[in-house]
Amino acid sequence: MDTSNRRCRCRCKSFSSSSAPSEYRDWAALPHDVLFDVFLRLESCEIMWGAEGVCKAWRRVVVEEPKLWRRIHITSVPEWSSVDIAVRDAVDRSAGLCEAFSGPWDDDSLLYLAERSPSLKEMHLSHDEYASYEVLIEAIKKLPLLEDLEISPPYQQICASERFFESVCKARPLLKNIKIMFTMPSGYNMGDAVLEEYIDGDIYRTPLMLELRSLELSNYLFFAEALTAILDNCPLLESLKISGLLVDGMDAQLREKCARIKNLSLPNDSDEEDEETHDSDEEDEEPEDEDEVSEEGEDPSDAGF
């Protein structure tokens, strides 16, 4: 037996000593299917920088089973490694079977993922201030099966949130779920964003999104015209959540379009709903006051005055 397997038994001996002090288990000799089932329950980071370093037998399962890497979830990268190395290793091990990726991104690793993951359906990318907006759009175009996109782009780098959202929709118009959380840099506020939008001067429209069911936009600056385009061009939309700033107001026609969305949350919509509820309550109370007045007016006549 090689030294790595002996080392594996030594490491695991202490865990079994409480039940059988004179015995140990040869964890390196566990059946392949058992190890595979256990590793499926671990995150990618726990496998790459934990389980695969235990012994050769464990590493063999990790490296030789592409199905372990159908869902790649990288929460953090050790200081001695890098995002690019971690993503490349995980993508290589998936052998083109990766269906879901979640983790940090930079230009090189994102392109590597897109070019070698034709089966990718779900992609959740955390914020990287050095990542390129153009590379992200290019990567999205390379993923024909992508349905679920969640991303945190730096706001100031792309300047206009409407422009970015439109570019994402054009790059992959068959997305079913989109979540974009714009990261506001320190000292940057919605007033600055409004000014940039006016300076830009262009009008951005949501293209036809026939499969979109859910849309969530955080720190999003938009106009009523942009909201109208979303509602008109996303016929299957069921959930719409937007936080940020609606620069201009909504007219009755736009409110009517919003009413068809099952799960709707817009900036300041709760305050407007409260005002409408308050107004309707006052209207409901008016007939009661009139009835009371009429009843009071009848009393004197009944009394003979």
UniProtKB/TrEMBL annotation:
<dbReference type="Pfam" id="PF12937">
    <property type="entry name" value="F-box-like"/>
</dbReference>
<feature type="region of interest" description="Disordered">
    <location>
        <begin position="263"/>
        <end position="305"/>
    </location>
</feature>
<protein>
    <recommendedName>
        <fullName>F-box domain-containing protein</fullName>
    </recommendedName>
</protein>
<feature type="domain" description="F-box">
    <location>
        <begin position="24"/>
        <end position="72"/>
    </location>
</feature>
<dbReference type="InterPro" id="IPR036047">
    <property type="entry name" value="F-box-like_dom_sf"/>
</dbReference>
<dbReference type="InterPro" id="IPR001810">
    <property type="entry name" value="F-box_dom"/>
</dbReference>
<feature type="compositionally biased region" description="Acidic residues">
    <location>
        <begin position="269"/>
        <end position="305"/>
    </location>
</feature>
<dbReference type="InterPro" id="IPR032675">
    <property type="entry name" value="LRR_dom_sf"/>
</dbReference>
